[in-house]
Amino acid sequence: MSLPKVLILGAGFAGIECAKALRNAAVDITIVDRQNHHLFQPLLYQVASAGLAVPEIAHPVRSIFAHQKNAQVLMEEVTRIDLEAKCVHTSGGDLEYDYLVIALGVKTGYFGNDEWEEHAPGLKSLDDATRIRREILLAYERAENCDDPELRKKLMTTVVIGGGPTGVELAGAFAELARFVLRNDFRRIDTEEARIFLVEAAPQLLTMYDEDLSEYTRNALEEMGVTVKTGCFVETLTEGRVELKEGETIEAENIIWAAGVEAPAITRELGVETDPGGRVMVETDLSIPGFPEVFVAGDIAHCIDQAGVRVPGLCPAAMQMGRHAAKVIWEELKAPLPKNYEVRRQFRYFDKGSMATIGRSKAVAVSGKLKFDGFVAWLMWLFIHLMFLVGFRNKAAVFMQWLYAYIRYRRGARIITGVQTCD
Amino acid sequence: MSLPKVLILGAGFAGIECAKALRNAAVDITIVDRQNHHLFQPLLYQVASAGLAVPEIAHPVRSIFAHQKNAQVLMEEVTRIDLEAKCVHTSGGDLEYDYLVIALGVKTGYFGNDEWEEHAPGLKSLDDATRIRREILLAYERAENCDDPELRKKLMTTVVIGGGPTGVELAGAFAELARFVLRNDFRRIDTEEARIFLVEAAPQLLTMYDEDLSEYTRNALEEMGVTVKTGCFVETLTEGRVELKEGETIEAENIIWAAGVEAPAITRELGVETDPGGRVMVETDLSIPGFPEVFVAGDIAHCIDQAGVRVPGLCPAAMQMGRHAAKVIWEELKAPLPKNYEVRRQFRYFDKGSMATIGRSKAVAVSGKLKFDGFVAWLMWLFIHLMFLVGFRNKAAVFMQWLYAYIRYRRGARIITGVQTCD
User: Fold this and answer.
1) Does B155 touch chain A (CB under 8 A)?
2) What is the predicted pLDDT for the residue at B327?
3) Same domain, A247 and A376
4) Residues of B numbered 353-412 whose beta carbons fall under 8 angstroms of chain A's beta carbons: which are they?
5) With 70 as the cut, is the pLDDT of residue A18 above it?
6) Which of A336, B144, B272, B333 lies at a 20 to 30 A Cα distance from B409?
7) Helix A165-176 to helix A211-223 angle, to the nearest 10 degrees?
8) Are residues A97 and A136 in the same domain?
């Protein structure tokens, strides 16, 4: 008799945690991802800003499960999910399942302006990050050998759109790159003249935090030389140019989009209810209504938990959801038939807090009623992110990089690759 | 009065050493390279075989010279060298010089079969290395989800053409990758069944060494599962297929060319004498006959030194040549006019020996009349390469990677990137 098949789509935090939590279950697990690596997304902005190298924030999915014998990994693209037939179509053939966990994450969203993508790439994958890093570093190289002052100014201008955690982190990291890391490297340009804009439509940065933390963040960024523009809507985005609704136009060689995410298109073809961002509406046990054998976990799920809290799109939430789906599956396999979906374990999000880093020694953090900013928040951020990183090697290597960067104000990862093969 | 202009083409070992040796000279140095990084070429095979990550063997050229105020760096492609007009044309404008040092290195050479390049890439740049790594790792991913036994066999076959140090190192590293590193990662394929071929036209591997070291190398590789084919000429190379003159055909998903190098085409347009590989024939002071202000250093030079020794295409030789050119320039600037080219300092190659690594704890080395093999040679190789690596961060990071790889038999760098953007 063959074991029940648990099919997990996506090797992000939700998918990985779900598979790990089933390590001792009598099931046959298959994890499908189009990449061969699990990505530590919270540090992706550091790769984009040349602070960390690729292998320090990524881990081969296969090596995570090398010794978990009930799990296998397939590197394929999911093309269609057929809930009725209990079958998932992939670039490498069809996969049937007894339990399905959809944990495909979200992608950069342009609120209907998909044509903006080519002028303002988002930051969701390693390839996004290395492309942004390459373009930023190349812009300084070109500025160094440019005699036209207008063009040079444009080459040395970067616009980050979106004042959430990713936008704040990117703007801070780009400012540090220009003002400290690259300072002695050029002879003709002064990288301290580089202009970094952070554009946010809401009246404050980091809208999920209280106003005082937002103010702290704004002041810290401005001290670092970032021009913060809140309450500014983007009207038009074309190659190297951002036009704001207020009439202002910014010419910038590099424009990064960090203003929103949406679920991949595949969710709209499921035939089930989704929210306006394409996230799948789930029951409090994380299953899709009418399909008790299908769970949705991580950022791709729209979940109101047992306590009535909307579960946020954060790492810890994704990990908790992945583990919850695994528990429900395992308990159900152990329980006697007939299965009783009514009495399933309900998901309850445990909010450990959240944080955003701004730069060297500067961060903001919230946990329950506690609020932190400055060096203490930054130390918390450092500690928590190191603890979460998957795998020993990464932890040690990232720690060394950071320590070194902190002491020496140099960045080890600013190598431009792919100029010939990719452009 | 402006300072004498020293223009250095290429930021490899020769170019970097030349510029560094002039750090206290009253000259205006410009280093031009089409990449933004200096590359530690002897370890490039480790990136291609997923043993090391990119930033561990590359260093931004700008950061090497950040504090050498008489040097500036331009990231441009050299398009033409006009010796008569004392002018170098680049993608970013023309550069005049008083002294020129041509240190552009060599590229992969196909002995007139340039159409083989697309089926059997060489290994000279970081982009080459990451492409090879991606293709090798993807082949195993595809094999894991492949039901056709013939195709699976082909996907798990790699051919390395050329039995010099690079070919030996690649074949050994690919064998270790399959047999040890990836062993537990797959469920459907057994990576120990992967086939690695090493094809060499000469009757022995590592032709520059004595027969006993070549025999040791062959035995060590065969023990590791590599099929060594010496005395085998490649007749035809097409996509995924190598035909040998002896009639044998090998079907292989990945074919790597490590059989030869040649100078870039730009040397043939100089109007001066070159050897059949396009290397520029130089005087014993490393200048071009008739152009005493132009030096050629590193692999791109064909040099017979003061002692009548043909200088080999090795790192230490390139570094010595770069420093020699710098000394001649500096001495001449300090000496009274008229300049006397007859009495210039002559180059003499100091042969420290050479080595090749085969795998974990296995290498061969020659220094003068001394010969080493096995663990002792490997320790020498490890020590010397670590000492030579540019920059503290790299040394420490590479050492940690190696130590970890040695203890745990895992590789940290096997992340596939660029699948979407580059392919």
Assistant:
1) no
2) 96
3) yes
4) 393-394, 396-397, 400-401, 404, 410, 412
5) yes
6) B144
7) 20
8) no
From the CB of residue B92, how many other CB atoms can be counted at a distance below 10 Å? 17
pLDDT of A15 reads 98
pLDDT at B224: 95
Residue A222 lies in a domain: yes
User: What type of residue is B326?
Assistant: A
pLDDT digits (tens, 9 = 90+) for A265-323: 999 999 999 999 999 999 999 999 999 999 999 999 999 999 999 999 999 999 999 99
For residue A73, the chain B residue with the least C-alpha distance is B186
CB contact under 8 A, A421 and B145: no
What's the CA gap between B120 and B142, in Å, rounded? 19
* Interchain pair A416, B35: CB under 8 A: yes
Instruction: Clarify whether B332 is annotated catalytic.
Output: no
Are A137 and B92 a contacting pair at CB < 8 A? no
A364-401 pLDDT, tens per residue? Answer: 999 888 999 999 998 888 888 777 765 545 566 666 66
Q: Which residues of chain B have pLDDT under 70?
A: 1, 336-340, 389-423
Q: What is the pLDDT of residues A336-351, one digit of tens each?
A: 666 667 788 999 999 9
Of B53, B66, B422, the CB nearest to A421: B422
Residues A201, A123: one domain? yes
Q: State whether B255 and B123 are in the same domain.
A: yes
Asked if residue A280 and residue A141 are part of one domain, the reply reads no
One-letter identity of residue B54: V
Indicate whether B403 and B296 sit together in one domain: no
Classify the phi-psi angles of A280: left when phi > 0, otherwise alpha if psi is within -120 to 50, otherwise beta.
Answer: beta
Q: Which residues of A are catalytic?
A: 169
pLDDT for the residue B422: 27
Question: How far separated are the first and last CA of chain B, in Å rounded?
Answer: 52
Is the pLDDT at A334 greater than 90? The verdict is no
**B371: CATH:** 3.50.50.100
Residue A367 confidence (pLDDT) = 87
pLDDT of residue A390: 52
Residue A310 gets which letter from DSSP? B
Please measure the distance between the N-terminal and C-terminal CA atoms of chain A and give it in whole angstroms.
Answer: 52
Domain extent at residue B195: 114-261+354-422
Domain-located, residue A71: no
SS3 sequence of A92-153:
CEEEECCEEEECCCCEECCCCCHHHCCCCCCCCCHHHHHHHHHHHHHHHHHHHCCCCHHHHH
Predicted interface score ipTM higher than 0.90: no
What is the percent of chain B with per-residue pLDDT over 90, rounded to a whole number?
Answer: 74
* CATH code, domain with B280: 3.50.50.60
Please tell me whether residues B189 and B169 are part of one structural domain: yes
The dihedral built from the CA positions of residue B246, B251, B252 and B255, taken in this order, carries a sign that is positive
**Domains contained in chain B, number:** 2
- Cα within 13 Å of Cα(A131), Cβ side: 23
Residue A56 lies in a domain: no
Q: Chain A window 67-126: which residues touch B at a Cβ cutoff of 8 Å?
A: 67, 72-76, 92-93, 125-126
